Every structure is written in C-alpha cells, then in structure tokens.
Amino acid sequence: MATSKSSRAPGFRCVECGWSSVKWVGRCGECHAWGTVEEVGAPRVRTATTGRVEHPARPIADVPVEDAQAWSTGVSEFDRVLGGGIVPGSVVLVAGEPGIGKSTLLLDVAARAAAGRPVLYVSGEESAAQVRARAQRIGALADGLYLASETDLGTVLAHLEQRSPALVVVDSVQTLASAEVDGAAGNVSQVREVAGALIQHAKAKGVAMLLVGHVTKEGSIAGPRMLEHLVDVVVQFDGDRQSRLRLVRAVKNRYGPTDEVGCFDLTDTGIHGLEDPSGLFLSSRHITVPGTCATVTLEGRRPLVTEIQALVAPSQIPTPRRASVGLDSSRVSMIMAVLDRRAGAPVGNADTYVSTVGGVRITEPSSDLAVALAIASAVMDRALPHQLLALGEVGLSGEVRPAVGVSRRLTEAARLGFTTALVPAGALDGGAAPAGMEVVEVSDVRAAIREVERRGATSEVGSP
C-alpha cells in the first residue's frame, strides 16, 4: 500500500540556503555550511490575528530625531568607524580572530562610556575576576561599569531589566544559550535565538549593544548568515599577530559610511587609537639604500604613507626564488614580468624579495608603480631620491593607470615632508599640487625609471 505524502517522516532543511534532505547530514549539500541542517516538521498554515496598536502611525516629519543622535564612545578611532558614535537602540557586531584585541577594545569603550551613564559588561568566556584584572591592567576601572559573568540568556535579560544600562557589551554572542532552544551554545539555532532576543530588547528599551562575534577558520562570522542582517553595524577586526597594528573596518553600517578605517596600537597596557599611523610604515628616512620606494595607500578614506622594500640577488638555483610579505605574490610576479619585458630590467634569473614596512598589508593596485621602482632600484643598485614617492597601477603593457583619491594621497605625503611624486598621466585632472610638492606625470614604467635616473639617483649606500 502506498504511503501518503502527509504520513511521511519530516525531512531536514538548511537554515542558510533552504536545501532539503530526507536524512540529517552534518554539511549542507548546496552551500557547504556545517551545522546548518535542521529537522523540519509537517507544514502548517499559520495566520496572525489582529493586534492592538499601542503607538499609532504618524507623519514621518513629526517623528523626533533626538532619540537617534549618536553619542561618543570616548575612543575617537572607534567613533570614526561607527560614523560618529553609538546610536541608542543600535546593535553593533564586532568580529575578529581570537586574541586580536576585541575584548580589550570593548572593555576600554565600556569604561569610558561608564563615566556618564550605566554600562553592563556581560562575559560568557571569562569570570568577573578575570575581566576585572584586565580592566585594572589597561586602566578601565569605572564606578558606572557593572560586570556579569553569565551564559544563560534568561539571566542576562534579567540583568538588563535590573540595571537598565545605556550600553551593553556581550562577550560573546556565541557563548550564550537559551533554555527554550535545544542544542549547545554557539549552534545556529542558539545564536539566532540569543541575537533575536538581545536585538528585540535593544530596540524596545533604546539600549545600545556591542556584541562580540567569533569567526570561523575561513574568516567568516560564526553562526547563521542572518545574524549580519539583523544587526545594525558589522565591524571587522584585522591585524597581524606579529605586529602591534590593528585595523577596524565597518563592513555594514546603517548610520554611517562603510569605507572608514580605525587604526589602533595594541600594547601591554591596552589598545590605543592612532590618529597618525603613517609613521609606523616608514623606515628611518635618514638612511638611503637601494630598493626602497614610498607610496600612499587608501584604507577606506584614510591615506596611509607606506614604504616598499625590494632585494634582488643572483640566484644559485635553476628556479629563482620569489618571496613577498604584505603584498599579493601573484601581482608582484606580474610586475616583475612587466619590468623584464617592457623596461629591460634583468630580473628573470635573480632571486627577488619584496616586503612592506611595519607589517601592513597592501591590496590595492595603486602601489604597483612603487613596487616596480623598488625592484628596479634594487636591480641597478642605485637608491631613489630621498623624498620621492610613486603611485599608480601598472598594466601588462607597461602603462601606468590612474588611481582614485590622488589629491588626498598627495596632501598626506606633503604633510610628512615628501617633495616629489610620480603619478599617472592626468591623475590630477587639472587640480593643483600640494604646496611644496612637485608632481611629475609619467605614462609608463620605462618613463618612470628614466625620470628617477634623471633626478640624480645615487649609488651611495647609507649605513644602517
């Protein structure tokens, strides 16, 4: 006898992409996400009854905007990323790798905010004594800052009702669990329930919330993808463990731009904002050696002057070594091929090492010309002029293409004392160069190399 469709056992469905299966699997067969396949029951038709309107709709022009005014966190670099500060009722998700400095930064923000309003810091990973010890180490002790070490969602909501804080820091959202939902803390259902309850409380009470989020091995935020859609702001922490520099980027921001970057210095005494981080990416400017060239990159809308170093040595093996640190290795290889083919630089049979100064990672193509000049300087063993920088994208035919934000880049370079800049032809677009800086337009790599040779590049090597 055939089994009717209604009597079949319930199937399983991926909560991320909707892929269905007749049996449970640990990994979705469509989006390949782990732990997102859940059992679904028989389909039911649900209808919502008419409710009572407590706050009637009114013209949009009559809605007051005072309740949505952002207030400063006391950390200027964090305010820059958020778009001016924290908006009451907003939910900010701060994600990053373990040990990158998320908890240290948010504890500092909580202590500064507690100077004028009550703040609750909820730690699901550390005890209250451990958080207090870190707060004492970084100087983040404040009378208005309350600590709670909890992992139960219901208890955390009770703390919120008892203290009525203006700002809540939850470290982290993956460590909280609800007794109403099956499964361990951190799975998809628990993260969805915890985030939904916290966001609902934030919107209803006008409480600003900072949620710490874990990341997976691939670098994405752990939990359901809808978590990033529910929150108002998503902030990503970046940085090399071997470097003190930390970059904070806004991936999503409903209250400000998403192209701002905050720079921080992580030390033993805490994490501090860097108003002028360009000095971290420059070596000693009184030393003149071959193979160095400065450029200006844009991190969001902030220009950063960085230095690129190159070393070219005769190879002792049939296949020359190619190593790069802080740069895209495939792009460096492409620039070397352009130098060999279009500019006649003999780099094909030599070991080449290219690196950035200060541990910064450059991803935009505007640094191509600086990489090319640094390698050419190392090949000729002749140092470039001391106060010269270069910017522009290099094409496969050797042409130098324009970069965005040239005026902002040159203004920052002139502030740091650079007097000469090699830029692509037409980069200024009729604008004036910064005071005290000579801007030279070049059309291709060969013309850029001829220009630095004409300006008296020297073969004298300074003593390090």
User: Given the helix and strand composition, which structural class is it?
Assistant: alpha/beta
CATH architecture heading of the largest domain: 3-Layer(aba) Sandwich
Q: How many domains make up the coordinates?
A: 3
* CATH 4th-level superfamily of the largest domain: P-loop containing nucleotide triphosphate hydrolases
Question: What's the CATH topology name of the largest domain?
Answer: Rossmann fold
Query: Approximately how much helix is present in the residues?
Result: 10-25%
Q: Which residue ranges are poorly predicted, with pLDDT under 50 across at least 5 consecutive positions? A: 1-9, 458-464
What is the overall pLDDT average? Answer: 86
- Determine and state the CATH class of the largest domain: Alpha Beta
Family: Belongs to the RecA family. RadA subfamily.
Protein name: DNA repair protein RadA
Region (Lon-protease-like): 351-464
Keywords: ATP-binding, DNA damage, DNA repair, DNA-binding, Hydrolase, Metal-binding, Nucleotide-binding, Stress response, Zinc, Zinc-finger
Task: Note down, in words, how this protein is organized.
It comes from Marihabitans asiaticum. A motif (RadA KNRFG motif) lies at residues 252-256. InterPro entries: AAA+_ATPase, DNA_repair_RadA, P-loop_NTPase, RecA_ATP-bd, Ribosomal_Su5_D2-typ_SF, Ribsml_uS5_D2-typ_fold_subgr, Rubredoxin_2. The chain has 464 residues and is an alpha/beta fold. The chain folds into 3 domains: 10-41; 70-275, 3-Layer(aba) Sandwich (Rossmann fold); 280-454, Ribosomal Protein S5, domain 2. It has helices at 76-82, 102-113, 128-138, 153-163, 188-205, 226-230, 329-342, 368-380, 406-415, 445-454, and strands spanning 12-14, 20-21, 37-39, 91-95, 119-123, 145-148, 167-171, 208-213, 233-238, 245-253, 261-267, 270-273, 292-299, 302-314, 322-325, 350-356, 388-390, 393-394, 400-401, 420-424, 438-442. A 9-stranded mixed beta sheet has the order 6-5-7-8-4-9-10-11-12, sandwiched between helices. Helix 7 (329-342) crosses helix 8. The longest helix is centred in the middle third of the chain and has 18 residues, at 188-205. 39% of the residues are buried. The model is unreliable at 1-9 and 458-464 (pLDDT under 50).
